[in-house]
Amino acid sequence: MHQQPIQTRQSEVSVLFAEPEFAVQLREDLPMADVCHVLDLFAVDLNRLAAALHNAVQTGPRAALHRPAHALAGAAGAVGACNLEIACRAVMHAAHDESIDLADALHAVAAAAASAELALARVQGELLSTSAATSGGRV
Fold first, then answer.
1. pLDDT tens series, the chain, 139 aa
2. Comparing C-alpha atoms, which of 11, 74, 27, 10 is closest to residue 46?
3. Entry pTM
4. What is the span of the domain harbouring residue 44?
5. Is 80 inside a domain boundary?
6. What is the DSSP letter of 133?
């Protein structure tokens, strides 16, 4: 059975996915339930790890930012959220280099995380509507 390609707006896909084809490939490689599960896990990780990064900013030394930034970069990379991954890697570097403006790096993570969260919600909604359309209303 040939699955319908995911229909999303290019700008939303490029915010969440490194390549527009990533979403299509994910849908072709996995059953819809698994795609939704992967994206649900990313949503949970995004919130949990962003909170851990915020906590490290508030309570720890600068070097303490490396671990949550690394974890968030990995979660972002797993779903192709390249802007968020790149921003997190900049924080990882800034955690060990006092000459880098940490506030700018953290602002970039916050902006990329917010964009990824919005794109994720839209992509999930479109995945569900595509699934409902191709399954006759059953998801």
1. 333 333 434 444 444 555 556 666 776 788 878 888 888 999 999 999 999 999 999 998 999 999 999 999 999 988 888 899 999 999 999 999 999 999 999 999 999 999 999 888 887 777 777 666 666 555 4
2. 74
3. 0.77
4. 10-132
5. yes
6. H
